[in-house]
Amino acid sequence: MKILIMDDDATVRFMLREICESAGWNIVLGSNGREGVDLFRTEQVDIVLVDYHMPEMDGLRAVQEIRKQDGRVPILVLTVDERQEIADRFLDAGATDFAIKPVRAPDLISRIQLHLRLSMLTKENERAEEKNEQELEAPKGIGATTLNHIAGFLRDQREPCTIDEITKDVGLAYPTVYRSLVYMMQQGKVRTIISYQKVGRPKNKYEWRSE
């Protein structure tokens, strides 16, 4: 398994390489977005880790360029910027998920393992002659397997869940889960329940709408 890492900070590249190599994965390193995109064209990689702020070509443009070449490879964005509008821009460009810097080794490894499994499931689904009738078509910026991973979790729950609970249990970043929930609510698959607390503001909880 091969991972492409794009980051202009040599210290961060070294740290990410050490984490990934400790998990037994092969690494390809790009010091900026342009170099990373060029490597993507020549290397057969299974997953991409991309920084946001880089010289020559930033992470957003790099994601857009990779998506022109490959619509399925998982792309994880590494950033210190937690603003929702930045997350939305990356998701619209085709990013798969996010990891907030500073990156912790256990979190990054589990996130990569999750997306590799989801990627394998996507390929299996594409080879299948018939798809499960409960599967959802995914809009731009949300992978179909990611969407169905979240949908499957909600179907299994007996009680409504908050977005924080869903995020924790499915192993995906908050923006990814949020965008998926919004889409499923628009499709009438998920509904929101307002939970009033004894103290503090009420919380939104989400549950799958059984047919």
Describe the structure.
- This protein is of the alpha/beta class.
- 48% of the residues lie in helices and 18% in strands.
- The chain has helices at 10-22, 33-42, 59-69, 84-93, 105-127, 144-156, 163-170, 174-186, and strands at residues 2-6, 26-30, 47-51, 75-79, 97-100, 161-162, 190-195, 203-208.
- The strands form two sheets. The protein has a five-stranded parallel beta sheet, with helices on both faces. A three-stranded antiparallel beta sheet has the order 6-8-7.
- It is globular and about 50 Å long.
- It starts with a strand and ends with a strand.
- The mean pLDDT is 88.
Q: What is shown here, in short?
A:
The protein is of the alpha/beta class and 211 residues long. The chain is built from eight helices and eight strands.
Count of alpha and pi helical runs: 8
Strands in their spatial order, largest beta sheet: 2-1-3-4-5
Category from helices, strands and their pairing = alpha/beta
Rounded to the nearest angstrom, the distance between the terminal CA atoms is 40 Å
Radius of gyration: 18 Å
Weakly predicted, low-confidence segments: none
Write the layout of secondary structure elements.
Elements: E1 2-6, H1 10-22, E2 26-30, H2 33-42, E3 47-51, H3 59-69, E4 75-79, H4 84-93, E5 97-100, H5 105-127, H6 144-156, E6 161-162, H7 163-170, H8 174-186, E7 190-195, E8 203-208
Helix pairs in contact: 2-3, 5-6, 6-8
